[in-house]
Write a structure and sequence with these properties.
single chain, Rossmann fold, 11 helices, 15% strand, binds NADP nicotinamide-adenine-dinucleotide phosphate
Length: 297
């Protein structure tokens, strides 16, 4: 099997590469059919997915069996101020990959986000719930989902949230850095979601790809919490117990001039995983504990 990973230098891309290399994730071993798979891992310096002709030609030349698209414009506030770029990468780029995938009969995994929902729910969102994105990032990712499914019927849409991996920037590393530099911080206590270890997400993407169970999947850490709860746990595990204080979104947004509306409740239920390949996502507290033991900075 030949697997093309786009955006491979990012958080998720790095976890996929490492699991495919060793044959196991932090959860367990991967499907035998993936052992010895040929992995073609590329990033924007090799292929800019916004360029349609180059993207389709690249796929036709390399003829992967599966494309896992980890490439995205992920800076939520950056997307809000540069909507052209957001739609180019998160929507048009995905369309280009889906057209390429279709041309060689490849499966496509398009990674998406909780931001496709309104974020005003009062129970975890199911894959069947209607979307209603409230930000440029959310709208561009929703368009990407639409293109991926429309252009290639062999598509898995995998929505995740609050992602942290060993390589790259994320909330966990930011909290640890701020605590090291300043000794304390305030974090919002009225936005609820699911912290997700990128290694766990990668494990489940690799469970899906040998199957033909195409469709939309939610794949987030089990259990839900606020950003404050998450930061307080990170602080405790990093030797800064009690250094994080709760605050409200309204105070935080005014104080730090935040331009993008964040979901107040965007927990996802991993319902489709449970029905198909199984949901082995770890509880968020268990997953962050192992991450803090292993992370290098
Ligand atoms: N991070 C989160 O909390 C989160 C939450 C929900 C969903 N997701 C989704 O999960 C997926 C993986 O996220 P991640 O955190 O691993 O992302 P990431 O670390 O930001 O990595 C994204 C990668 O895509 C590359 N890229 C950007 N524009 C590109 C282009 N035009 N062509 C090719 N590559 C391009 C980036 O390169 P440069 O660094 O050089 O720009 C980077 O290597 C994304 O689809 C994201 O939307 C993430």
């Amino acid at each position: 099997m030949k697997i093309l990973i786009t955006g491979s230098g990012g958080q998720l891309g790095n976890e996929l590469i490492s699991i495919l290399k060793t044959g196991k994730s932090e959860i367990g071993e991967i499907d035998k059919s993936l052992l010895g798979a040929e992995v073609l891992a590329i990033d924007v310096d090799t292929l800019d997915i916004t360029k349609q002709d180059e993207t389709v030609s690249f796929i036709k030349e390399n003829r992967p069996d599966v494309i896992i698209n980890c490439a995205a414009a992920t800076n939520v506030d950056g997307c809000e101020s540069n909507s052209d770029l957001a739609f180019k990468v998160n929507a048009e780029g995905v369309k280009n990959l889906a057209i390429g995938a279709k041309s060689v009969g490849a499966k496509l995994v398009q990674v998406s986000t909780d931001y496709v929902f309104s974020g005003e729910g009062d129970r975890p969102y199911l894959e069947t719930d209607p979307i209603n994105p409230q930000s440029v990032y959310g709208r561009s990712k929703a368009k990407g989902e639409e293109y991926a499914t429309k252009e290639n019927d062999k598509t898995f849409i995998v929505r995740t949230a609050w992602l942290y991996g060993y390589i790259g920037k994320n909330f966990v590393k930011t909290v640890r850095r701020v605590l090291r530099e300043k000794g304390g911080m305030s974090v919002v206590n009225d936005q609820i979601g699911n912290p997700t270890n990128a290694n766990d997400l990668a494990h489940h993407i690799l469970k899906l790809i040998p199957t033909k169970e195409y469709g939309i999947y939610h794949c987030t850490g089990e259990g839900e919490c606020s950003w404050y709860d998450f930061a307080a746990k990170i602080a405790e595990l990093s030797g800064f117990k009690g250094a994080v204080k709760p605050c409200t979104t309204s105070w935080y947004n005014t104080t730090y001039n935040v331009p993008t509306k964040r979901p107040s409740y965007s927990s996802l239920e991993n319902a489709h995983l449970k029905e198909t390949v199984g949901n082995e996502m770890r509880n968020w507290e268990e997953a962050i504990e192992e991450y803090i033991k292993n992370v290098k900075d």
